[in-house]
Amino acid sequence: MSEVVEPVLIDGAWRASHLRDAFSATNPATGDRLPARFPVSAWKDVDLALDAAMRAADSLLTCTPNQIAAFMDGYAARIESSFEELAGIAIQETGLPIKPRLIDQELPRTVLQLREYANAARDGSWALPTIDVEHNVRSIHAPIGPVVVFGPNNFPFAYNGVSGTDFAAAIAAGNPVIAKAHPLHPNTSRRLANCALEALLESDLPAATVQMIYALSNADGVQLVADPRVGAIGFTGSRAGGLKLKAVADAVGKPIYLELSSINPVVMLPGALESCGDDLVKQLADSAQLSAGQFCTSPGLVVLIDGSAARAFVDGVVAIYRDAIPQTMLSHAGVASLSQAVQTVRDAGAELLVGGLPVPGPRAAYAPTLLRTSGESFLANPQTLQTEMFGTASLVVACRDLGELCDVLCKLEGNLTGSIYSHESSDNEAYAKIERILRRKVGRLLNDAMPTGVRVSPAMQHGGPFPATGHPGFTAVGAPATLRRFSQLQCYDRVRSDRLPRSLR
Amino acid sequence: MSEVVEPVLIDGAWRASHLRDAFSATNPATGDRLPARFPVSAWKDVDLALDAAMRAADSLLTCTPNQIAAFMDGYAARIESSFEELAGIAIQETGLPIKPRLIDQELPRTVLQLREYANAARDGSWALPTIDVEHNVRSIHAPIGPVVVFGPNNFPFAYNGVSGTDFAAAIAAGNPVIAKAHPLHPNTSRRLANCALEALLESDLPAATVQMIYALSNADGVQLVADPRVGAIGFTGSRAGGLKLKAVADAVGKPIYLELSSINPVVMLPGALESCGDDLVKQLADSAQLSAGQFCTSPGLVVLIDGSAARAFVDGVVAIYRDAIPQTMLSHAGVASLSQAVQTVRDAGAELLVGGLPVPGPRAAYAPTLLRTSGESFLANPQTLQTEMFGTASLVVACRDLGELCDVLCKLEGNLTGSIYSHESSDNEAYAKIERILRRKVGRLLNDAMPTGVRVSPAMQHGGPFPATGHPGFTAVGAPATLRRFSQLQCYDRVRSDRLPRSLR
Question: Which end of chain B has fewer CB atoms surrounding its CB within 10 Å, N or C?
Fold first, then answer.
């Protein structure tokens, strides 16, 4: 009996996939395999999608920003009217709670992004049109061609390859998108892509503007990234996987925007710990447990100076974690990765204070975990002790004094964020010293706040020095900057006026 | 007898180099070795320079844009008052004519760039300061740290690592520069660096803001690029050398901006050839002979449709080249590379029409060269027939018809520029077809003009898709965009107001 496998979205229609294999998603809350079968595409699917994307890229050049924005708004409206249904599908595949996470937070954010980037497309200033009348030279950031977006496991909507921030930025900049859905939530992605398709068919854009496949062999993934028909790539996911794709893209000189790994150092200065230690306990425990710690901005490293306030802080977090009910994680594979990472950090000499074990039974879950090491021992093995533990697991580095704390910060790799908690007067001198070191190592610097929660703001930098991302000058969130990632700078030198793009005449 | 070797500029002073070896420049017009000896630095020189640059980067953060701009203006004024002396040194090392090239063109351009980028620094808008009051989130493009600039052989001033456009952009963005002078013109670079040092010592900037070394082993060059103290790299030079450094920088996730190779396709449509063929002959011959063809924007590929006007055009260029006196090239090594590249193109089936030989004798020179191939033969071997011939040497591709011409353009790699010559009415349909293909393959599109001559304009794109450069979104010329290359995007999230950078308060 031949099994039914879901189709892929190629060239404006749902089509039977050229199958290499098939897979099912699993409900992480129960361990049950979900019934629908999804394709692992053979190269033929990719090849067809790339050809269709090339044609769509050409047609999109003749579409106006208003037409592009209208599609995005139409898509946003369709998502908005399907919140209940979408959340119902997503909870099965991700274990993320419908409320508040999916319906109150992530889905509204997804809709907001689509609308804000649509506004940026309409406004047009993202493209920095520049006219030098004296020399008759003009330039503008123009679409870069088909963009491949690899979505991550941890945001089924807001970073999904077919609806998230890379997707919205690439479309707003005038490019077609080939989404590589994450295989942990294929049905969610299918439902989203169908909203996109319906909105497309009602729009003036080419129907191949949005295409989607679910899974590929590693070799085909590499071939896709290197393909000359691809203009740029957006990738959010694991460091190992991202670095493989980066090497391929770099070798052919193709822009690839990556979000790889980040442990988001949080520095707690003595005055802050002494004056509001209880509050800091709650803030860390809340932030680290959000989404079972599966955020790229989860606070994975706490750096402080040893002392009674610091010890009370650590004891406070341990007490909360001991009583906490471990949340469902996105997958059993994620639990295994987390176990492995915690073991790596322990092997490097960190002491386990609480947690450190998967929850027994069919549910994918891991006990909230806190580890501790000294500044001295961190400095002896800084690389391994920066291993990302993707889940609710943080390492506290207890330093002897401010000097050692600065030494620890000097050893940090690039991160998306860095937080400094400080007393309003007694920590000022220490702040100045620390800021100087931390500032250039992180994309977003926070005061007295945990790193989770990324505003969709024009002032946002959701990015940072390697290995947090591949280039410290770009952000993955926030119009208009994020649109420019998916563009090439095009100059018109003494080009006859009737041949210029409208915005350069 | 120990020989005297010139010092390197490290940490604010001329210091004896830690020598790995020493070398001399050669006068390409005579083949004579010039007397001064320059160091090939050992790693120790680089290490000291990097430490000093780190300290300078820290100090520069406390300097105002006005102080940075004042240094650049001071440096520009010193260059301006030394035109005669500088040109006199440069002609010995480069063979480039003092007039008009050095004194009337390149030196004024160098001074102009320094002043325009100084103005961009003062103005500050390059950094895109963005304030979101509602969420108390702010962002700005901030200095990226020490920048290493590898200057090319062909512009002793305007692209020199210690005075050119990458240098000026990196400084204007608030970064110290370690210049890697080109070993073909060390004395020119030494004299420039001394102007920079004098201007620095009169400025409020740290004295290690500008440092310079002359030559390194390949291994040390690689180690320099990978060093964690380096924020970013600018490289203008050969494709082979640049790709090696790119691989190293990419592996450690460090921004590297490259200008590698470009053959600058020029399409001549039938109406243009018929109506002003004689003029096009002169334009091509003039442009291709400028600086003995040693421009990154030299017209190396002419694409046209075969016919009587096309043949008359080719005959016209051949006639000019036959009578032309070959100009002195930058080096005998350059002549050898050009010979090799011309041979490669001939081996791939192109017919030599004129030139094709070095000039006998001690002078570095090569006869102006034109080759021809058919569209069909180009399509059979598009890769090899795009070999860059750095010098006065162009390949004419004579196509059967417009369809074949479009096929040829489809096979082109990324280029800095693309030119289309067209008749004001009869070529319009062909133009539309061609522009669609060529536009996305080039950074700068020209109408009825040769690609040589790069304006210092805010609307300039001196860049383009790989392999012309490493990223199609950046330009190497033109403020304010070129400054942003040497920055990281830094966000301040709920940071207390007295701790914000001044421009974000």
Answer: N
Chain B residue numbers touching A449 (CB-CB < 8 A) = 493-494
* Chain A residues inside the 8 Å CB shell of B250: 246-247, 250
Which residues in A lie closer than 8 A to residue B467 (C-beta atoms)? 253
Residue A195 a catalytic site member: no
Structure letter (DSSP) for residue B269: -
Q: Per-residue pLDDT tens for A284-332?
A: 999 999 999 999 999 999 999 999 999 999 999 999 999 999 999 999 9
pLDDT of residue B3: 78
What the block records as the tokens of A309 is 């306030």
Q: How confident is the model at residue A3 (pLDDT cuts 50, 70, 90)?
A: confident
Q: Do A491 and B436 touch (CB under 8 A)?
A: no
From chain B, the residues in CB contact with A246 under 8 A are 250
| Cross-chain Cβ contact A447/B246 below 8 Å | no
Q: Which residues in A237-379 belong to E strands, given as ranges?
A: 256-259, 265-268, 301-305, 351-354, 369-374
CA distance B329 to B37: 22
Task: For residue B144, give both structure tokens.
Answer: 């990226």
Quote the CA–CA distance of B112 and B448 in Å, as a whole number: 27
Distance of CA A480 to the CA centre of its chain: 18
pLDDT at B2: 59
Check A254 against B466: CB less than 8 A apart.
yes
Nearest CA in chain A to B468: A253
Determine the 3-state secondary structure of A197 from DSSP: helix
For B276-329, what is each residue's pLDDT tens digit? 999 999 999 999 999 999 999 999 999 999 999 999 999 999 999 999 999 999
pLDDT at residue A1 greater than cutoff 50: no
Return d(Cα B485, Cα B467) in angstroms, integer: 18
Average pLDDT of chain B, as a whole number: 97
- Is the pLDDT assigned to residue A2 strictly greater than 80? no
ipTM of the complex: 0.97
Instruction: Report DSSP letters for B76-129, one per residue.
Output: HHHHHTTHHHHHHHHHHHH---IIIIIIIIIHHHHHHHHHHHHHHHHH-GGG--
What SS3 state is found at A164? coil
Instruction: For residues B393 and B373, give the distance between their C-alpha atoms in angstroms, rounded to a whole number.
Output: 14
CA–CA gap between residue B369 and residue B392 (Å, rounded): 6
A258: nearest CA in chain B?
A: B253
Q: Are A230 and A148 in contact (CB under 8 A)?
A: yes
Q: Chain B closest CA to A412's CA: distance in Å?
A: 11
CA distance B35 to chain A (A): 41
How many CA within 13 A on the CB side of residue A32? 7
CB atoms closer than 10 angstroms to residue B360: 7
b/e sequence A395-425, b meaning 16+ C-beta within 10 Å: bbbbbeebebbbbbbeebbbbbbbbbbbbee
The mean pLDDT value for B95-117 works out to: 97
Q: How far is CA A332 from CA A336, A340, A386, B198, in A?
A: 6, 12, 23, 64
Q: What is the pLDDT of residues B412-465, one digit of tens each?
A: 999 999 999 999 999 999 999 999 999 999 999 999 999 999 999 999 999 999
Residue of A nearest to B463 (CA): A489
Tokens of B267: 């399409």
pLDDT score for B264: 98
Q: How far is CA A150 from CA A83, A128, A165, A235, A295, in A?
A: 23, 27, 11, 5, 17
> How many angstroms separate the CA atoms of B368 and B363, rounded?
15
- Structure tokens that stand for B266 in this block: 């020029």
CA distance to A306, A357, A385, per residue, from A350 (Å) = 15, 15, 8
SS3 B260: coil
pLDDT tens digits, one per residue of A64-75:
999 999 999 999
